[in-house]
Amino acid sequence: MSKHSVVVMGLPGSGKTTFLAALWHLVSEKEVPCKLTYVSLQTGNIEHLHEIASQWRAAKKQERTAQGGDKLVSMILKTEGGNPQTVTFPDVAGEAFLRMWGLRECDETVAGWLKEPGVLLFIHADKVTVPNWVIDEKLLMEDLGLPLEADAEPEKVVDWSPDVAPTQVQLVDLLQSMQTEPLNVGPRRLAIILSAWDKASGRGLSPEQYLARRMPLLDQFLKHGLHSDWETRIYGVSAQGGDYDDDNTKLADAERLRDIDVPSERVSVVYAGGKSNDLTEPLQWLLT
Length: 288
Ligand SMILES: Nc1nc2c(ncn2[C@@H]2O[C@H](COP(=O)(O)OP(=O)(O)O)[C@@H](O)[C@H]2O)c(=O)[nH]1
Ligand SMILES: [Mg+2]
Description:
binds magnesium ion, 10 strands, alpha/beta, 33% helix, globular, binds guanosine-5'-diphosphate, four-stranded mixed sheet
């Protein structure tokens, strides 16, 4: 049996756990056709998968993946007419990636996972911290009649810190680390998942266009900064189909999703002008 692994990356809140929950529902319930089919579950963590998939089915938000509580999920999946392949899916707390950017530190276990040839990089389409133009800020301050930063009281000036950096800056740095020793392992496939695509699709842009508009630095890095033996695809993925609620709130969107008879139909994956319910599409590409 061939052993392939996919590593899942993304800052905190980028949609990683939700994707894994929906993926487990899709491959275990077989309600819609998928490119990869489920053979068996390898090591541990069936409880974790059951727990997150039952939250997902109930249209309830996932608990935050606790720091240090990284879950390693290994599934055996089969490609169309192909051999069973082991997909190791570490559900790493996003803080691990924040630490890489902010403190230049990486846990040895996480570093081991980051050497896999298949990379799924999650970006929450609706929560991108975009860079602001100095000129726009200045005009806004003038319109509001507020003093410019240079005139403001010194104690009100906020110092720069790594976590206020724009999302695209943090992600480009992470990708650069993956091309540098000790994480540089040669050719890789990178599937960028723009998660919560239901929040972005109303703008009528393709996932590539959306990424280029909202994160031009990342877009240019993907086109010209990656080693030539890396291949990239950009997917728009809605693993929920809309907003989920929690135990204290009720959302109309979540009610609508709970009413869909076949839960797998909440999911949509947009790539190259096509649309499906199949979350295994990017995985299948990473595994071939
Ligand atoms: N509207 C919408 N929200 C989503 C979707 N996927 C994830 N989210 C929300 O994004 C937030 C972060 O998701 P989560 O999976 O916990 O991110 P993680 O920290 O990367 O594991 C949660 O509030 C999710 O409900 C989606 O497809 N649509
Ligand atoms: Mg999580």
